[in-house]
Amino acid sequence: MLEPRTHRNNSDIRPVCFSFELGHHANGSCVARFGETTVLCTARIENRVPPHVRGTGVGWLTAEYAMLPNATHERIGRMKSLDNGRSKEISRLIGRTLRSVCALGMLGSRQILIDCDVLHADGGTRTTAINGSFIALYRALASINRAETVLHSSVAAISCALMCKQLRLDPDYSEDSTADADANFVFSSTGGLVEVQVTAEGAPIKPQLLSDMMQLAAKSCGKITALQTKALGLDADHFRRKD
User: Fold this and answer.
1) Among 194, 238, 11, which residue's Cα sits nearest to residue 101?
2) Theoretical Cys-Cys bridge with 136: which of 30, 56, 109, 169, CB 3.0 to 4.6 Å?
3) CA gap 65, 160 in Å, rounded
4) 3-state DSSP of the chain
5) What pLDDT shows up at residue 211?
6) Which residues face 67 on adjacent strands?
7) Each residue of 102-148: pLDDT tens digit?
């Protein structure tokens, strides 16, 4: 039986907060909160690049994602969190997502290192990490006066779950862990679809259901983009104008 949500509809995202109280040693940082899920995102700029782009004059961006030992109900060892396949897969996802909206040729021979540390996990850690990482990235690039030349749009991410034939946006852990299917979506602020990850936990899902999920996610990503823009103190149409 599908239990009713408390204080929000199936199409609502959890309360969102982007703050800047941690990570002052980095070039840019953000603490992103979606409900109880909390991720510290930092961006550091280094005047060096990895071997595969050395000598090209093109910069690079990479990301690392990990859960702190007590981010979940059971303690996770630090090395286990860094070395497991899930963390590596999410690290690559964050890097791909952010690179998709960067003109790396405008960065010069610099590398940006994104670190996402999950402080508290309650579902949607990868999407929360992407949303906070974009803010950290923008702030880092702004610190060297490169934000407007390197970033041609912003990115936002959200998850959607199927439970008892109903779609639930931005599920928390209790919802996501019992879902019949779940999907993660990443959109650019100009409406482009950056990435989709879909898993059917039970029976295969039909294409129309995926389309419904995508439409719901697209609307919510627009709202997240507005919250990111506000947190950065920018004009409401700032990223949409860059298409």
Assistant:
1) 194
2) 30
3) 21
4) CCCCCCCCCCCCCCCEEEECCCCCCCCEEEEEEECCEEEEEEEEEECCCCHHHCCCCCCEEEEEEEECCCCCCCCCCHHHHHHCHHHHHHHHHHHHHHHCCECHHHCCCCEEEEEEEEEECCCCHHHHHHHHHHHHHHHHHHHCCCHHHHECCCEEEEEEEEECCEEEECCCHHHHCCCCEEEEEEEECCCCEEEEEEEECCCCCCHHHHHHHHHHHHHHHHHHHHHHHHHCCCCCCCCHHHC
5) 95
6) 118
7) 999 999 999 999 999 999 999 999 999 999 999 999 999 999 999 99
Q: Which domains does the chain have, with CATH numbers?
A: 16-242 (3.30.230.70)
Torsion of CA 81, 82, 84, 85, to 10 degrees: 130
Strands 166-169 and 16-19: unpaired
